[in-house]
C-alpha cells in the first residue's frame, strides 16, 4: 500500500496488553450483528491492520486472530473462547515490517498451524512454524525470494497434498511467484515460477485459487492494479497457462481483492472483483464491484449491472459470508471514499439465492462500523455455531462483528 503515510511505530511494554473500551456497542441497531469491538478487541485506533486470519494457535478449541500490520509488528490476539481477544506481544518478533497479508497452513506437516505474512515496501516475507501452544519459530529463511508482495494464496496446486504458495507481486518489472512445497523436505519450498507460470509482468494485488474449469485441480485468478486481471488454468501438475480470454469484463479495473464462490447457486464458481478509483489518489477508474458469472461453458461474464448494488466508493477488502442463515453466500464489502481516503460505513449485500444482491446495510450493519475497512476474516469466534466477522482497518480501529 503506497501513496499515503505509513503507520507510526508505537512504544509498547512487554507482556500481555488488556482490553480498552472504544465507544458504545449499544449504538448498534443491526438485527444480525453486534459490534463487539468495544468490549472484545484491544484498542488500536491508529493501527494499520490490513488483514486477519482466524487460527487456533494454542489448540484450545477456539479460533485466535492473527493480524498483518503495515508499518508495525504483526500481532496475535488470543481468544478466551467467548471471542474476547487479548494481545500477546512479541510472538512474531519485535521488528516492524510493511506487511500486507497473512494466511495459515500446516506447511511442515506436523499437525500444527503455521503462519505466513507477505510484505510490500521492505520486501521481507515471513514464515513462522507454530508450536501448538501459541508460540512460533521464525523460519523465514526457507522462503525462496524477496519481493514487493501484495497478495497471495495457499493451496495444493500439483496434487501432492502439500500446501503451495502463489505470491502476487507489484513494482517495476514484477513477476508473480509459484513456490511448491518440497515433499522430500516438508516445510521447504521449490521455486517453480519459471517453469510453471506464464512469463508476464503484472501489478498484482490479490490471488485466488479455485477449480474454475471443473477438472479437479486448483486454477488461479490474478487481480491486478493495472489491467488486465488474469485467469490461469492448471494442468493438474501445477503448470498454469493463460486463459484470460474466458473472463469477459466490461471495463478496465484497478482491483484489490478477488473472491471465488458460487453466487448463483448453480454449483459452478463465479468471480467477484473489489475495485478502487485509485490508490488513494485522484479518480482514475470505475470502482464498481464486478461479479463475473460462470456461463456453464467455462466463460465468466460481467453481469454486475443487474446483480450488484451500484457503488461509487473504493473497496480494499470484503468477505463472503452467509449472514442471514438462508444457505446462500452474502457479501460484506469495505467502503472508503476516494478521492479523499475518507472512512465510510461497511456495506452488507444479501443474496436472493440466485446471485442477485440487495444492499441491506441499514438492517445488517451496526452504525458503528465506520472506518477505512481493509481485508476481513470470517469464522465462529465465540462457539455459538454462527460465523463472526473481523474487519481490518487502515489507521482506523479494526472491528469485530458477532452474530446475534
Q: How would you describe this structure to a colleague?
A:
Pfam families: FG-GAP_3. This is VCBS repeat-containing protein. InterPro entries: FG-GAP, Integrin_alpha_N. Keywords: Signal. Residues 1-27 form the signal peptide. The chain starts with 15 loop residues before the first strand and ends with a strand. Strands 1, 2, 3, 4, 5, 6, 7, 8, 9, 10, 31, 32 and 33 form a 13-stranded antiparallel β-sheet that branches. It has a 5-stranded mixed β-sheet with strand order 19-23-22-21-20. The longest helix is centred in the N-terminal third of the chain and has 4 residues, at 37-40. β12 and β13 (177-181) form a beta hairpin. The model is unreliable at 1-27 (pLDDT under 50). With 404 residues, the chain is mainly β. It is built from 4 helices and 33 strands. The chain has helices at 37-40, 193-196, 304-307, 361-364, and strands at 16-17, 33-35, 48-55, 64-72, 75-79, 85-88, 97-105, 114-119, 126-130, 136-138, 149-155, 164-169, 177-181, 189-191, 204-210, 219-224, 230-234, 240-242, 247-248, 255-261, 270-275, 290-294, 300-302, 318-321, 330-333, 336-337, 342-345, 347-351, 357-359, 370-371, 373-379, 388-394, 399-403. The protein is globular, with a radius of gyration of 20 Å.
For the residues shown, what is the average pLDDT?
Answer: 93
Enumerate the spans where pLDDT stays under 50 for 5 or more consecutive residues.
1-27
Separation, N- and C-terminal Cα atoms? 34 Å
The percent range for strand residues is: 35-45%
Q: Got a strand count?
A: 33
* Oligomeric form: single chain
Alpha-carbon Rg, integer = 20 Å
Shape: globular
Helix count? 4
* Global structural class: mainly beta
How does the major sheet shape up? 13 strands, antiparallel
Estimate percent helicity.
under 10%
Amino acid at each position: 500500500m503506497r501513496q499515503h503515510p505509513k503507520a507510526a511505530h508505537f512504544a509498547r511494554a512487554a507482556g500481555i496488553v488488556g482490553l480498552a473500551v472504544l465507544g458504545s456497542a449499544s449504538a448498534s441497531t443491526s438485527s444480525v450483528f453486534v459490534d463487539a469491538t468495544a468490549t472484545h478487541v484491544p484498542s488500536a485506533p491508529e493501527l494499520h491492520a490490513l488483514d486477519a486470519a482466524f487460527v487456533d494457535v494454542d489448540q484450545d478449541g477456539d479460533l485466535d486472530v492473527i493480524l498483518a500490520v503495515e508499518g508495525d509488528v504483526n500481532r496475535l490476539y488470543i481468544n478466551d473462547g467467548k471471542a474476547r481477544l487479548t494481545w500477546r506481544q512479541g510472538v512474531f518478533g519485535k521488528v516492524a515490517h510493511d506487511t500486507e497479508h497473512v494466511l495459515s497452513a500446516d506447511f511442515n506437516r506436523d499437525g500444527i498451524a503455521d503462519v505466513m505474512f507477505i510484505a510490500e515496501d521492505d520486501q521481507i516475507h515471513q514464515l513462522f512454524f507454530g508450536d501448538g501452544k501459541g508460540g512460533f519459530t521464525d523460519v523465514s529463511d526457507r522462503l525462496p525470494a524477496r519481493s514487493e508482495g501484495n497478495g497471495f494464496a495457499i493451496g495444493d496446486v500439483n496434487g501432492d497434498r502439500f500446501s503451495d504458495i502463489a505470491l502476487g507481486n507489484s513494482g517495476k518489472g514484477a513477476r508473480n511467484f509459484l513456490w511448491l512445497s518440497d515433499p522430500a523436505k516438508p516445510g521447504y519450498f521449490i521455486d517453480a515460477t519459471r517453469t510453471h507460470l506464464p512469463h508476464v509482468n503484472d501489478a498484482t494485488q490479490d490471488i485466488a485459487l479455485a477449480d474454475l474449469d471443473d477438472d479437479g485441480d486448483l486454477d488461479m485468478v490474478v487481480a491486478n492494479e493495472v489491467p488486465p486481471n488474469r485467469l490461469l488454468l492448471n494442468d493438474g501438475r501445477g503448470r498454469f497457462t493463460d486463459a484470460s480470454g474466458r473472463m469477459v469484463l466490461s471495463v478496465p479495473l484497478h482491483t484489490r481483492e478477488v473472491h471465488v464462490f458460487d453466487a448463483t447457486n448453480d454449483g459452478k464458481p463465479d468471480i467477484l472483483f473489489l475495485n478502487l478509483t485509485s490508490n488513494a489518489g485522484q479518480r482514475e477508474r470505475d470502482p464498481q464491484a464486478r461479479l463475473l458469472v460462470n456461463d456453464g461453458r467455462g466463460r465468466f461474464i460481467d453481469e454486475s449491472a443487474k446483480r450488484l448494488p451500484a457503488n461509487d466508493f473504493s473497496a480494499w477488502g470484503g468477505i463472503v459470508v452467509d449472514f442471514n442463515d438462508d444457505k446462500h453466500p452474502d457479501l460484506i464489502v469495505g467502503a472508503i471514499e476516494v478521492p479523499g481516503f475518507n472512512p465510510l460505513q461497511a456495506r452488507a449485500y444479501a443474496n436472493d439465492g440466485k446471485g442477485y444482491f440487495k444492499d441491506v446495510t441499514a438492517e445488517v450493519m451496526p452504525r458503528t462500523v465506520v472506518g477505512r475497512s481493509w481485508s476481513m476474516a470470517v469464522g465462529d469466534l465465540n462457539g455459538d455455531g454462527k460465523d463472526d466477522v473481523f474487519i481490518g482497518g487502515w489507521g482506523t480501529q479494526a472491528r469485530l462483528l458477532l452474530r446475534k
